[in-house]
Amino acid sequence: MTNILILDSAATGEASVSRKLTDAAAHTIRRRDPSARIVRRDIGAEPIPHLTEQTVPAIRAGIVDSDVAGEALALSDALVAELQEADLIVIGAPMYNFGMPSTLKAWFDHVLRARLTFQYSEAGPEGLLKGKKAIVVESRAGLYSEGPAAAMDHQEPHLRTLLGFMGITDVTFVRAEKLAFGPEAAAAAVADAIERIEELTEAELPLAA
Question: Does the global pTM surpass 0.90?
Answer without folding.
Answer: yes
